[in-house]
Amino acid sequence: MKTAIAFVCALFAGLAVPDPSAALPVDAIAVEVDRVPQRAPAVIMLGGSEGGRFGAAHPMSASLREAGFHVVRVAYFGAPGTPRYLDRIALDPFDDLIGALAADPGVDARCLFVLGASKGGELALLLAADDPRLTAVAALVPSHVVFQSSRISPLRQSSWRRGDVPLAFVPYPVADSATLRGVLGLSGYREMHLRALEDETAVAAAAIPVERIAAPLFLAHALDDQVWPSDIMVPFIARRLAEAGRPAPLIHAAPDHFVLNHRESRAAVLGFLTAQAGSLGCLK
């Protein structure tokens, strides 16, 4: 409660006050792998700002296993041994994970795929932009920029970092009613993100370099997205790819932000991933 009160006071003052707990969090992730018996492609699954990881019984996890994929479920905060908050999460452990999977004799390294939803979609795009070993990317209701950490704190931080260096990010505006309503849970976060995206300088600095992604790309947006404006951000991603002469992504329209809650959307994701695995000779 004291933290929330301090944050609200900072909003109205238009200030970002010092935070004594601003040390870099631990650079660790928690991984669980659901294996299929044969040598097979692998899908890294990344959840969003809810924390934790997808469960083994999640319909998407189960469908991927049934289709013949190893399913690599990753928690990057909010789980034992990982950072408590989604705050300056290190990308480096994901590099190690991808390397370990590529070297695993049970994994067909031609088909290392990543599937991320919401904040995990933002993460999936960042990872794929830096690592050509990821050969298919499904980013569901992602952002086109790095946003501020979702940790409720007066001190604004990036969501991600490389080594000890936080990535440039788009901050949520202080002294703004939309931010205040979002922080206090009085509304969704859509308006807060729309206001943040008005900062053109920050948006330019924090844009995810999706044109560096060599892999086929599946994007999902939701016209009725009350969490953040994926209906606006996904077209930005597609436009940046087009301007760089990159292949057009496959774009799926989901009913709402919670894409994997919907059977039709799960089927679209699975169809994309199985098609890519088939084209690379990883699924018979």
Describe the protein:
With 284 residues, this protein is α/β, with parallel strands linked by helices. The protein has one domain: Rossmann fold. It is built from nine helices and ten strands. The chain has helices at residues 2-13, 59-67, 92-103, 119-130, 177-183, 190-196, 200-206, 230-243, 263-279; strands at 30-34, 40-46, 70-75, 89-90, 107-117, 134-140, 160-162, 165-166, 217-222, 250-254. A seven-stranded mixed β-sheet has the order 1-3-2-5-6-9-10, sandwiched between helices. A three-stranded mixed β-sheet has the order 4-7-8. Helix 4 (119-130) links the parallel strand 5 (107-117) and strand 6. Helix 5 (177-183) crosses helix 6. The longest helix has 17 residues, at 263-279. It is globular.
Observed structural traits:
single chain, three-stranded mixed β-sheet, 284 residues, alpha/beta, 9 helices, seven-stranded mixed β-sheet, globular, Rossmann fold
CATH domain class? Alpha Beta
H-E string: HEEHEEHEHEEEHHHEHEH
Mean pLDDT: 89
Spatial order of strands in the largest sheet: 1-3-2-5-6-9-10
* Class based on secondary structure composition and strand pairing: alpha/beta
Shape: globular
Give me the Rg, rounded.
19 Å
The helix count comes to: 9
Q: Mind telling me the CATH superfamily name? A: Alpha/Beta hydrolase fold, catalytic domain
Approximate helicity band? 25-40%
Number of separate strands: 10
Low-confidence stretches: 1-20
CATH topology: Rossmann fold
> Between the first and last Cα atoms, what is the distance in angstroms?
55 Å
Indicate the multimeric state: single chain
